[in-house]
Amino acid sequence: MQFHPGDSDPDDSHLPHRVAAGDGERLHWAGMEFVIEASAESTGGAFSIIEEINAVDAPPHVHTSEDELFYVLEGDHILTVGDTEYDAGPGDLVFVPKGVRHAQRRVIPMTGRTLTMFSPPGMEGFFRELAGAEASGEVDGETIERITAKYGAVWVD
């Protein structure tokens, strides 16, 4: 993340600041791109925002600690929250309370962009660790399960 003249000192990143277009923390995992636009560190622990670019579908899962909000930037998505299925396109927002089973599917696989907000923050660590494991050649089923458990996500049927 880069700070720009007139923005807050990076040592005080939880104070008012901006992240210019293209300056988020870019991560790559399994052919997907994730951009951390806001993190626990940059928001003083308030929330995190992750841009998901052309990601794969997310199978049913539950977050034990975080509420999750999806804001669709591009593409057509189907979000299943509990027993309700939402068709979501650009400009639509879908909220998922913590503890509620949900899944995300792209109408056209690996297309579209969403901003995903987590509150409280912390799930950005999940994406950082997955990207780091892949970069070091250590990604396998056991590693993915360990990282998933660490961040309180539970895969469900």
- Poorly predicted regions: 1-10
Which secondary-structure class do the elements indicate?
A: mainly beta
Number of helices: 2
CATH architecture: Sandwich
- Residue-averaged pLDDT, rounded? 90
Q: What is the CATH class name?
A: Mainly Beta
- Let me know the CATH homologous superfamily: Jelly Rolls
- Annotated CATH topology: Jelly Rolls
What about the largest sheet? 6 strands, antiparallel
Helix percentage range: 10-25%
State the shape: globular
Number of domains: 1
What does the radius of gyration come to?
A: 16 Å
Largest sheet strand order: 1-2-3-10-5-8
The termini sit apart by 37 Å
Describe the protein's topology.
Layout: E1 25-29, E2 32-38, E3 48-53, E4 58-63, E5 67-74, E6 77-81, E7 84-88, E8 93-96, E9 102-106, E10 113-119, H1 124-135, H2 141-150, E11 153-155
Antiparallel strand pairs: 1-2, 2-3, 3-10, 4-9, 4-11, 5-8, 5-10, 6-7, 6-9
Structure report:
- With 157 residues, this protein is mainly beta.
- The chain has one domain: Jelly Rolls.
- The protein contains two helices and eleven strands, in the order E-E-E-E-E-E-E-E-E-E-H-H-E.
- A six-stranded antiparallel sheet has the order 1-2-3-10-5-8, covered by helices on one side.
- Strand 1 and strand 2 form a beta hairpin.
- Helix 1 packs antiparallel against helix 2.
- The longest helix is centred in the last third of the chain and has 12 residues.
- The N terminus is likely disordered.
